[in-house]
């Protein structure tokens, strides 16, 4: 009988662990504020500020789980709708320009549900 509580405890721990992996802890506010310095560059209004690449690298470090990457993707697509004059080519190449490898295309047509850390 002493074995049953241990099994139940293990199952509860596994359930909590798996549930934690399905939620993102990154907010759209974090995404937009982290990349705010990139807007002038991405709208052809100025050179690439060093703070932009710092933000790109920081966001890449924050988004280490599949739910986080999907959340970042959704937030970026949402924010992009509110920015007039975005240069799609600059947006698509920004990670590479900043020295960050992203295993999926950066595009307004990217299906965020297909993004995972298993690539």
From TrEMBL:
Q: What does this protein do?
A: Plant non-specific lipid-transfer proteins transfer phospholipids as well as galactolipids across membranes. May play a role in wax or cutin deposition in the cell walls of expanding epidermal cells and certain secretory tissues.
Organism in which the protein naturally occurs? Arabis nemorensis
Q: Bifunctional inhibitor/plant lipid transfer protein/seed storage helical domain: which residues?
A: 28-112
What family does the entry list?
Belongs to the plant LTP family.
Per the record, the GO terms for biological process are: lipid transport
Annotated Pfam families: Tryp_alpha_amyl
Family matches, as PROSITE patterns: PLANT_LTP
Q: Does the keyword rRNA-binding apply?
A: no
CDD domains the UniProt entry points to: nsLTP1
InterPro entries given in the database record: Bifun_inhib/LTP/seed_sf, Bifunc_inhib/LTP/seed_store, Plant_nsLTP
Provide the protein name.
Non-specific lipid-transfer protein
